From TrEMBL:
<protein>
    <recommendedName>
        <fullName>ATPase</fullName>
    </recommendedName>
</protein>
<dbReference type="InterPro" id="IPR012347">
    <property type="entry name" value="Ferritin-like"/>
</dbReference>
<dbReference type="InterPro" id="IPR009078">
    <property type="entry name" value="Ferritin-like_SF"/>
</dbReference>
Amino acid sequence: MSYATVKDVLDYSRTLHEHARNLYQQLRDQTQRERVDMMLKLLAEHEDALAKTMTSTSESTAKRVLDEWHQFEPGSISEAISSCRECHPDMTVEELVEIALKIDDYLITLYRHMVSEATSEASRQLFENLVQLEETEKIRTVRAALSVNDW
């Protein structure tokens, strides 16, 4: 098992969100379907907001928390978004949502692991907050997908 600081975990999460955002933006450039384009736009904005949240979280978290070491096996970003290998411009909205939810679930699992491994109350609270954030964003994504028929 590898070790990483809390800052490393936040940077990994930010990078993952950025990669997902870039993927959605690339698919937007290629799709001809209006509903799919709108869902891709929403997902890209979702990932962009989360990437920015990771940056601001790093900036607002105490240095002593950011410097804490934890067991963390990051794996590659491509493994985290492995379902995106199946991406193509003619995907359905449902397929896109499935990919987005897999990314959210991956990070929720990661953050829950970090909560269980936390050595201080401050880092435990940080990762609990990130679990809540990802769960809230997951619900928003599902709601947006359910409302796609209204578009």
